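Need a sequence for this fold. Nothing fancy.
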């Protein structure tokens, strides 16, 4: 690159200065570098991306801008518009000769970036990308497996072991490593290109005080990481299944939102874990360790990258075709904490208000929506999570929903979360429910998970009458319904084995010419009607 070169580093994810090889590449041999973020209207839609997550993004942008100003006498340039319309104009206006960005594996991003590569080429601008959002380049993993992905976590771990350790993370650039003028400020009004307020993007104002306790940005990410790294023994012995889904304060790291936005480098996190593991030789191991959680993330990224239509059932080659039902009323009640099951409703309230819930809490409400109780498609649940979660991530979100609905990865559909007993394991008194469902805070522990069983006199004395002040259960008998759904799952699995997967309950009934098991099942005759010799049980389900 010429010494007179002008570069843009296009921030998208990767909202950090540490371990940012694309940013470093933009600076190599450049006279001027413009740090840029484009607020793409594709994402700025409250019905798809909730205010907590978008606010987290804006906080992350302000943090980048502040760090650029303080460390490098620079700034972040924020522009609103479609990237394929914005960038050609800036190429010309700023006389750009190079543009760099961190690669992105999501379908929308891949299409967008292909367009930008061509636009840059047409404008005579060199375009370069770097892999730094994940530990490994998905293409490198595929190359180790003859171009094939895998839906087995253990097989995946064997693949990445052949690649060796992830690349070493880079430190944040030192000022002497950067161009004399990281960015040209002359003639640029400091009031232009600033990070907008949430309300300016069509979002409602945040509640005051903001119930979301997690602040966006690289600075907050590194502070949270450092806080946890001081707890060396906790890090070394961490096993995620042993953490509490209903702890009043997070029982895990809550680093996932920072990994999602790239405020924290997964490679830096991985390396810090290795340093602690060196001190504790008997540390926990994947899949339950913190290192294992990073590998789960990589696993889902690889699957989403290599699988067409990863975000939906139809046209998705790894997803079982299951005849989910459409019930907008039940879906809305699940989303808005109106199922009448306090543990489920408390989890969904925490999700909407804070943008975060424990992974086992996600398991609980996902199972309830799909195969456990409501028999609604995992796609609908994924959309709700995508709207509210701070860490909503195309790969991890859709991968987990397929897992929890037994549509892929996990096939033991007879294992079902109870909306009553599961929460009691770690919170017998129901303090979590009392926090997030205040209407029930006076209920005795005996009834807090099943308030409809409380005598009317108790309900009145607690100031919350079921059916009036808090909903009746959306499903009267969870045990009965879950067994019925297990039979539906078995029927779907059997159809898959027979090579005739069907996606609608009606098709199952009409396709059963002999009027046998499937017809009876989908006419509501109950799970006992679907049983025959060797038709149920662990071994059979595992083979499904």
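Here you go.
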């Amino acid at each position: 690159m010429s010494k007179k070169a002008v570069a843009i580093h296009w921030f998208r994810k990767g909202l950090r200065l540490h371990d940012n090889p694309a940013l470093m590449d933009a600076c190599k041999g450049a006279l001027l570098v413009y740090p840029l973020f484009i607020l793409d209207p594709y994402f700025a839609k409250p019905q798809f991306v909730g205010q907590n997550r978008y606010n987290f993004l804006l906080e992350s942008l302000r943090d980048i801008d502040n760090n650029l100003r303080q460390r490098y006498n620079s700034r972040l340039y924020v522009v609103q518009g479609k990237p394929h319309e914005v960038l050609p104009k800036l190429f010309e206006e700023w006389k750009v000769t190079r543009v760099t960005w961190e690669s992105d594996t999501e379908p929308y991003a891949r299409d967008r970036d292909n367009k930008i590569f061509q636009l840059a080429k047409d404008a005579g601008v060199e375009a370069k990308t770097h892999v730094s959002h994940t530990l490994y380049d998905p293409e490198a993993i595929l190359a180790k497996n003859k171009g094939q992905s895998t839906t087995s976590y253990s097989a995946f771990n064997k693949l990445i072991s052949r690649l060796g350790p992830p690349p070493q993370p880079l430190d944040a650039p030192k000022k002497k490593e950067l161009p004399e003028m990281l960015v040209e400020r002359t003639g640029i009004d400091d009031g232009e290109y600033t990070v907008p307020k949430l309300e300016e993007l069509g979002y409602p104002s945040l509640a005051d005080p903001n119930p979301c306790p997690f602040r966006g940005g690289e600075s907050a990410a590194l502070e949270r990481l450092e806080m946890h790294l001081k707890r060396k023994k906790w890090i070394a012995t961490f096993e995620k299944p042993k953490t509490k889904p209903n702890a009043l304060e997070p029982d895990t790291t809550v680093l996932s939102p920072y990994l999602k936005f790239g405020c924290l480098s997964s490679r830096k996190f991985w390396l810090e874990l290795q340093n602690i593991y060196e001190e504790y030789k008997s540390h926990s191991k994947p899949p339950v360790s913190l290192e294992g959680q990073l590998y789960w993330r990589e696993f889902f990224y690889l699957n989403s990258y290599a699988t067409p239509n990863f975000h939906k059932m139809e046209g998705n080659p790894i997803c079982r075709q299951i005849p989910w039902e459409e019930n907008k009323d039940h879906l809305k009640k699940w989303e808005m904490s109106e199922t009448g099951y306090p543990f489920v409703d408390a989890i969904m309230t925490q999700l909407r208000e804070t943008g975060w819930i424990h992974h086992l809490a996600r398991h609980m409400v996902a199972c309830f929506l799909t195969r456990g109780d409501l028999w609604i498609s995992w796609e609908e649940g994924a959309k709700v999570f995508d709207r509210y979660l701070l860490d909503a991530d195309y790969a991890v979100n859709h991968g987990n929903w397929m897992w929890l609905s037994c549509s892929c990865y996990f096939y033991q559909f007879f294992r079902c979360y109870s909306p009553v007993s599961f929460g009691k394991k770690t919170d017998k008194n129901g303090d979590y429910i009392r926090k997030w469902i205040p209407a029930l805070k006076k209920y005795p522990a005996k009834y807090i998970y099943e308030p409809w069983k409380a005598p009317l006199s108790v309900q009145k004395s607690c100031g919350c009458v079921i059916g009036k002040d808090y909903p009746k259960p959306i499903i009267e008998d969870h045990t009965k319904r879950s067994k019925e759904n297990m039979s539906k799952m078995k029927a779907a699995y059997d159809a898959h084995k027979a090579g005739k997967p069907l996606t609608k309950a009606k098709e199952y009934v009409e396709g059963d010419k002999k009027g046998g098991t499937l017809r009876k099942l989908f006419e509501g005759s109950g799970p006992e009607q679907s049983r025959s010799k060797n038709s149920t049980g662990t071994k059979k389900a595992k083979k499904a």
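For context: The longest helix spans residues 51-72.
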